[in-house]
Amino acid sequence: MALHEKDMIRENLLDDVYASASLAHSLPKYRIPDTEQDPRHAYSVVHDELMLDGNSRQNLATFCQTWSEPEVHSLMDECMDKNMIDKDEYPQTAEIESRCVHMLAELWNSPEAANTIGCSTTGSSEAAMLAGLAMKWKWRAKRKAEAKSIDKPNMICGPVQICWHKFARYWDIELREIPMERDRLIMSPEEVLKRCDENTIGVVPTLGVTFTCQYEPVKAVADALDKLQADTGLDVPMHVDGASGGFLAPFCSPDLVWDFRIPRVKSINSSGHKFGLSPLGVGWVVWREKEDLPEDLVFHVNYLGGDMIDFALNFSRPGGSIVAQYYNFLRLGKDGYRKIHTACYETAEFLANEIEKLGPFEIIYNGQMDAGIPALCWKLKDQEAEGYTLYDFANALRSRGWQVPAYSMPANRQDLVIQRILVRHGVSRDLAVLLLKDMKRSLDFFEKHPDHASLAAEEASGFMH
Ligand SMILES: *Cc1c(COP(=O)(O)O)cnc(C)c1O
């Protein structure tokens, strides 16, 4: 080898990443490059671009986990190759999934926790899809048995997360979404009853409504449906969307009756990656009893001797976040979950009190345990008087990295704009105080520069929606 070639190779090996020849120009963005890159160089390029995403810990919009213990990182790494669908290949991962289902059934007071039926999913959206399908199948079988028409199924809910709009559209269900009315921002038993008929496949209350974070009144709705059945014979089942609340209420509001203690509740979904404290990619759905999940929707796997069901929209799917869910159950126990979530509720209430003291805001939901999830939301007392909007305020906070979303309500309160903070594991009291300081700073700025506020908003509005 010629001397100069050796020098060149040595030089390449020792190159500082950012002084390397391959990073001396921008890499192609919309076509695969022709040649290979040094892994360190490619890593730096990708890693650095991700900086522009912002800091997830300051994202107070998301319900999902943004902090995990080092042990969870290790398990996720160890499970990179675990394919959840290969229950034969990875029987222990499948066994762990099955244990989690039983633990959740017990947590949600299933009458038959030891003999329960349920599965993991990629999140609550897939779980909702599966639970919704089960409701549709059950309704259809009943209608067929009575020789009645099956072409107009409907489902009743309050202001729901988008996954239920998807479910309704994909599977041809009429969604009877109860509109908001003045200060009533969630479903009420009266409004549910008005919409029930023989084509109702189910009523779906949400435990932790996306817009305001409040719990819908599951028990009161169930009682109303009991009365409806007594009066008319109409028997309408319920599914609870406990995407957030399913991992909160059992620990922090044990006296709130919302789960399988109510016989009418036939299934429950929850997001492991929200208040289940697991990394992204896991949700759960559990049915009250085996009969609540129609047989012909389910594919059975008998490799494990037990009753391992395969009911999913995906085939291959990563196992790591399911394993991490199991780790969390063992690591934290019920006490640990209660402690973490209680700290979040206390910080939410603290923030609600302090934000109210700032002056211009009226708190709509203050993170009160038993009423909703550890979160808070507010509106402007008088938008005209202030000369800025909540979109302006969100944009001002964004300049310090905080993502505190402002958004308008669905029908019939599209006029109402609110702003919301989710207090999750890792949103510490100290961080909350730093946020409050930035809130005060932004309001002071608006006061001194009234013209700047709305200008900034116009630029931001596209992005904020
Ligand atoms: C987040 C959420 C969903 C969707 O859950 P994913 O786990 O994100 O798929 C559904 N319903 C409610 C109430 C939610 O908060």
From TrEMBL:
EC number(s) recorded for this UniProt protein: 4.1.1.15
Domain of life: Bacteria
GO molecular function, one term: pyridoxal phosphate binding
Methyltransferase found in the keyword field: no
GO cellular component terms given for this protein: cytosol
Protein name: Glutamate decarboxylase
Example of a GO biological process term: L-glutamate catabolic process
Record PTM N6-(pyridoxal phosphate)lysine, positions in chain: K274
Gene: gadB
Record keywords: Decarboxylase, Lyase, Pyridoxal phosphate
The reaction(s) this protein catalyses: L-glutamate + H(+) = 4-aminobutanoate + CO2
Keyword tRNA processing: no
Cofactors (names): pyridoxal 5'-phosphate
InterPro entries: Glutamate_decarboxylase, PyrdxlP-dep_de-COase, PyrdxlP-dep_Trfase, PyrdxlP-dep_Trfase_major
Gene3D superfamilies: 3.90.1150.160, 4.10.280.50, Type I PLP-dependent aspartate aminotransferase-like (Major domain)
Pfam families: Pyridoxal_deC (PF00282)
Family membership noted in the UniProt record: Belongs to the group II decarboxylase family.
